[in-house]
Amino acid sequence: MWEPLIQPFAEFSFMRRAMMGCIAISVGGTPVGVFLLLRRMSLTGDAMAHAILPGAAVGFLVAGLSLGAMTIGGLIAGMAVALLSGFVARVTALREDASLAAFYLISLALGVLIVSTRGSNVDLMHVLFGTVLALDNAALILLCSIASITLVALAFIFRPLVLECADPQFLRSVSGLSTITHFTFLALVVMNLVGGFHALGTLMAVGIMILPAAAARFWAVNIGGLIVAAVAIAIASSVCGLLVSYHFGLPSGPAIILLAGVVYGVSLTFGPVGSLAAPLFRRRVNA
Amino acid sequence: MSYALAFEELTLGYDRHAAVHRLDGEVADGSLTAIVGPNGAGKSTLLKGVTGVLRPLAGQVRFGTCTRNDIAYLPQQSDIDRSFPITVVDLVAMGLWSEIGGLFGLRAAHRARIDDAISAVGLTGFESRIIGSLSGGQFQRALFARLLLQDAQLVLLDEPFTAIDAKTMVDLLGVVRRWHGEGRTVIAVLHDAEVVREHFPETLILARDLVAHGPTAKVLTAANQFRARQMCEAYVGPPHDCGGYVS
User: Fold this and answer.
1) Distance between CA B106 and CA B96 in Å, rounded?
2) Complex ipTM value
């Protein structure tokens, strides 16, 4: 009975590597996704995911499908777009969401242009959709390092980040940590998106950060519970998505994100906190 | 008389537009002062200038008997994201920031002080409730508990009694009187002229520029309020933007 669940991982090392990579992305990226969601920055995450493309493409142009070059390129492009859109919002009449949209669209077009003129369609597909089944040791070390750095950094900035989200005026009145917290958080977002794109591609890296966080909103009420629930949903979606892709011959990245989407749909309908069915639960308890 | 803080040609604003213009004056140490004025008169901006959230475009805020690190600040409820999933006890505990900062954990003594503050504002039993599930009055009580823990010499309150029930207002006014009795300096942005007349001995009327500052009985007159509205209309816009008083 358990064979279909265990055999793919027991038999194939690429499946084990894919699972390990996805767990690392889930552990590091999903808590960042929870804060993106709570700061009403879910779509900012999506925009940033597209913004890293030209950096990764330039890395590809310089060194081919090199992990290091594409990672550094993606980090530089992501941080540049984040800082530029913030700068434009501060010195012009344009709001930050509009300037971010402008920069990420330019970035996306530039990235696709670079990859498609200098590479093949296969290369473009690699960057856009990732290659979770082809993660090598270097990629796994990168993903685990990003997850570790993210957890340590979040532990350091957790309290000011919570205040920056919930009550930014109060934080600014008691401490000068507001700006550094904001930029550290943005750096964590970019870092996790860059890590995620090696496995899931630029288009879907943000999915494993946001969908589990959105689903967790229907299961937990406090910030700690939200993070734990979101990470658990991300890991479960990753493992189940890999199994579905293995047994039905489907592409792995979209399968993982779609599984997270299914969990979101179920949570939205039946979750105990604020879901469509939540009023029914309350009525039954009160009856 | 010594002063808690002094404004010297203080100009504050956003995007180079002055919301408070060349304000001069002193707030006496241990005084209980209401800041009143029409909407858009710069009242909240002035508090943000005192806390350091907003840097002056010109002039300065000078601190006398207290320092900038000795301020407890209550923002407007609308500035706080109440949908953020933290509990009452976590929100109140932030009042210990000067002791625990961003990294250190709570010790038993801290927890006892948090319990005392929550009890003092009548929120015992609500410790583990998520702030989004509280009523406006209960949430304001939690914010006052956070102020109690800050234990600051200068207390700044931005519209502390807006959108709360009468019982909560009476209880929180009791906390404000207690601070005043302990010799702390309290400055509150208020809209209700009756509350100001009854409970606040000093008043500063602002309409971007200073209209009047002094004992409430002398300063909070119909003539000064009319003048403030006229000044506000001249700077801010049509009369409906310049209501703000319930006199």
Assistant:
1) 9
2) 0.83
For residue A198 the two structure tokens come to 């090696």
Phi, psi (deg, nearest 5) at residue B214 = 165, -160
DSSP B34-83: EEE--TTSSHHHHHHHHHTSS--SEEEEEESSS-GGGEEEE--GGGS-TT
- What pLDDT shows up at residue A119? 67
Q: Which CATH superfamily is domain B1-66+182-247 in?
A: P-loop containing nucleotide triphosphate hydrolases (3.40.50.300)
Cβ contact, residue pair A156, B102, below 8 Å: yes
Q: B51: nearest CA in chain A?
A: A173
For residue B47, give how far its alpha carbon lies from the nearest alpha carbon of chain A (Å).
10
Instruction: For chain B, give every domain's residue range.
Output: 1-66+182-247, 71-152
Residue B127 has φ and ψ, to the nearest 5°, of -55, -45
CB atoms within 10 A of CB A282: 11
Q: Report the residue of chain A nearest B74, measured CA to CA.
A: A170
Tell me which chain B residues have a C-beta less than 8 angstroms from the C-beta of A38.
Answer: 84-85
**Cβ–Cβ contact A226 with B under 8 A:** yes
Give the model's pLDDT for residue B233: 73
Q: Cα separations (Å) of B224 from A53, B45, B142, B212?
A: 61, 21, 35, 7
Neighbours of A158 (CB within 10 A): 18
Chain B contact for A156 (CB, 8 A cutoff): yes
User: Which helix (H) or strand (E) element contains residue A27?
Assistant: helix A13-38
Q: Is A200 helix (H, G, I), strand (E, B) or coil?
A: helix
Q: Assess A228–B contact: CB distance below 8 Å, yes or no.
A: no
Judge contact between B6 and B64, C-beta under 8 A: yes
Burial (CB count <10 Å: 0-12, 13-18, 19+), residue B165: middle
Please report, to the nearest 10 degrees, the dihedral formed by the alpha carbons of residues B81, B86, B90, B92 taken in order: 30
Q: Taking a C-beta distance cutoff of 8 angstroms, is the pair A168, B48 a contact?
A: no
Residues B121, B171: contact at Cβ < 8 Å? yes
**Per-residue buried b or exposed e for A64-100, using 16+ beta carbons within 10 Å of the residue's own CB:** eeebebbbbbbbbbbbbbbebbbebbeeeeeeeeebb
Contact A220 B85 (CB under 8 A): yes
C-alpha to C-alpha distance for A221 and A216, rounded to whole angstroms: 9
Contact A96, A41 (CB under 8 A): no
Mean pLDDT of residues grouped by 10 in chain A (287 residues)?
85 93 95 92 83 84 79 89 82 80 87 77 70 87 95 95 91 89 91 87 85 95 94 96 93 92 95 86 62
For residue B245, pLDDT over 60 is answered with no
Phi, psi angles (nearest 5°) of residue B62: -110, 135
Instruction: From residue A250, give the alpha-carbon distance in Å to each of A41, A49, A97, A256, B194.
Output: 31, 23, 35, 10, 71
Residue B219 token pair: 């300063």
Q: Name which of B2, B22, B77 is nearest B207 in CA terms.
A: B22
